């Protein structure tokens, strides 16, 4: 009888917690999850071997949009309580970076044995890679998109410190935040001309990430409103669409004064995505995008591995050498439509992995509770 009562109490607690989580999610701005979903899909497209123009178009704004949305979601309480803010940002970017890097590092030689990697690691290389994981100075090739977590970590730290200083001096105004964004952009523009070369994590890439992050926070504070978000969003996306015909820009490789051009074009694309997301949040398709947007980390982690699965099937069906599986991120020579298969697999398989992992997590406590 006691065990039944105990189990009922636990089930009530689970239901209560689920209700609380559901209320929190319902109070969230769904358009931001939709924006994240669109950007993570575009990231997979950019890595899939898609047509050159589409690749150049996507790369102009899809990652800046992630930093922008992260800044938009920055809670004001983390600015005043700096310690809590720094801890939360470390949990959001540093912890997953280290965790998944170590997991993939553990399987590196296994992946090498099935031709995903060309070479295995020695013990010395393992130790070096472990150190690089904890210092956020390097990750595994299958986690190539993890530069985002490195830049997000530093961008959020720099932004929090800057905003906290403004807050303590009672200078946390839109003009001062805008001034900070301008200074960071200019610093990023002149970084290329400095005589001292620093690691990439402290270069233009992270400075630009900080500018986009703080721009997101600033736009949230301004509570930007557009009477016709769909039309405005489409018009803004025309800017990177036209620019992609004439210039190749992305925040990872841009240097010098092209940083200024990159920021303007990226912000146009970013705001276009945000406004389109607001419009999509009103339609029936919204739950699909919010579902994807809530699981962007898993797509970031597993989409390259999903690509390898597709490549191995393609090689087998076409009687090609398995050694070609080391082509990264996708096979260099395939049918013109294969990038679509890569995109679909790069989204669906990581989501399937998420479902599997979370079913296991929910099942394990149930087993332990039933044994009590």
* N-to-C series of helices and strands: HHHHHHHHHHHHHHHH
The rough form would be described as globular
Assign the structural class, choosing from mainly alpha, mainly beta, alpha/beta, alpha+beta, or little secondary structure. Answer: mainly alpha
Q: How far apart lie the N and C ends?
A: 13 Å
- Give the beta-strand count: 0
What is the helix tally?
16
- Low-pLDDT stretches are 1-26
Percentage of residues in helical conformation: over 70%
Strand content: under 5%
Query: pLDDT average, as an integer?
Result: 87
Q: How is the biggest beta sheet arranged?
A: none
User: What integer value in Å does the Rg equal?
Assistant: 22 Å
